[in-house]
Design brief:
The protein folds into three domains: about 130 residues, no CATH class; about 60 residues; about 110 residues, no CATH class. It is built from eight helices and 23 strands. Strands 3-4-5-10-7-6 form a six-stranded antiparallel β-barrel. A hairpin with a 4-residue loop joins strand 12 and strand 13. The two termini are about 55 Å apart.
Length: about 375
């Protein structure tokens, strides 16, 4: 019994320690190292081998032009006038996009996303022809080619159709070969800069203090609310990767502005932990308006002149629930706010109206964001 009690107390103590440490976030999860970034690539290509589900060349002119240019580049002589009469339904024009990871080397592969831009019905079973992928600077950084995987189907005739998922968008795993590395350098003149994903002066200061406690005063200092500059210590000048890896593992206390985010379309409400209210009384009552319509038939007497007519009847009922007055004390936590508002039976859409009214009354210490 004594051993079980010791084990239970040890478990509770460790749980408390883990709960405390979980409040801190790793630097790699809240900040990005400048110079280490991804790059977007895009290209225009052709999908072939479709089972009569491709673009209609008579309607999609750019697909017909791309097919003509491809045949000419392959050394096939094509008469432009005769080519316009050709009916081909197994070709589709697509846009190909990919993400070039940082420090990617020539010869390595990346995944590509393929999406139709014509009137193709499905890209199932298609094969992407060699497509150069360009960056924002117009230079080719990768070349994509290969069979397409879409995980969908679309079959049907004139009167019925069966479809699963989205058949005009697909993916090629490892379908692009990198031909050129993107320029990038994360350490210049012995300095590095981290950019916080969410700008905050307190978080930037905490990050700087944590790094200085680990590597000495003056190693890091915040430039603004979103940027922290780090000077590489002398022992790590020749081993920058080890220094960056050690910084990314450091945990810091993050901070954020008190916010309440509401979405009236979906009834979603998200409140931050720092939201506080001044003493305020909230009364809430539902007003329901019920309108019922029915048709009564009016008929003339036997052997009398007249006709049968429909007379609409309308009934209106108004139901108003009793309002409940709830006092929310000053400085309460987010849990107490939720308990107090739930106690008066408010629905999510009612809560949105209540929060807006509390904000107008000046009793909410935080930012109210309505999406």
């Amino acid at each position: 019994m004594h051993n079980k009690l010791i084990t239970l107390l040890t478990f509770i103590l460790l749980s408390c320690l883990f709960c405390t440490s979980s409040q801190a976030a790793r630097i790699k999860d809240i900040a990005e190292l400048n110079g280490v970034r991804t790059n977007q690539l895009i290209g225009y290509g052709l999908i072939t081998g479709l089972a009569s589900t491709g673009d209609d060349l008579k309607k999609v002119l750019f697909t017909r032009q791309a097919l003509y240019n491809m045949l000419v580049r392959q050394g096939i002589t094509v008469n432009p006038e005769e080519f316009e009469k050709i009916k081909v339904k197994n070709v589709a024009a697509v846009m190909v996009n990919a993400v070039l990871p940082p420090f990617a080397k020539p010869g390595s592969t990346i995944d590509v996303q393929v999406s139709s831009i014509g009137d193709a019905q499905s890209l199932a079973g298609g094969n992407l022809l060699m497509t150069p992928l360009k960056g924002p600077d117009g230079k080719v950084y990768a070349v994509a080619q290969g069979p397409l995987t879409i995980g969908a189907f679309s079959f049907g005739g004139k009167s019925a159709k069966a479809q699963k998922n989205h058949p005009t968008v697909g993916r090629i795993s490892g379908g692009a070969i990198i031909e050129k590395a993107a320029p990038g350098k994360f350490a210049k003149d012995g300095k590095m800069q981290y950019s916080l994903r969410t700008a905050d002066f307190t978080t930037a200061n905490n990050m700087s203090n944590t790094i200085n406690e680990k590597y000495g005063a003056g190693t890091a200092y915040p430039i603004d609310s979103a940027t922290v500059e780090v000077i590489i210590p002398e022992p790590f000048i020749e081993n920058k990767v080890q220094f960056v890896a050690s910084i990314e593992r450091l945990r810091i206390d993050t901070d954020a502005n008190a916010r309440v985010v509401v979405n009236e379309r979906t009834g979603t409400i998200v409140m931050g932990k720092n939201v506080r209210l001044s003493t305020v009384a909230v009364s809430h009552g539902n007003l329901s308006l019920i309108i019922k319509e029915s048709l009564d038939v009016t008929q003339p007497n036997p052997l009398a002149f007249g006709r049968t007519v429909a007379a609409p009847q309308t009934e209106i009922d108004i139901i108003e629930d009793d309002g409940q007055l709830m006092v929310v004390e000053e400085g309460v936590s987010i849990g107490a706010v939720a308990d107090a508002l739930n106690a008066i039976g408010a629905t999510p859409r009612d809560l949105i109206a209540i929060f807006q009214a509390i904000k107008v009354a000046g009793a909410m210490h935080g930012e109210l964001i309505v999406l």
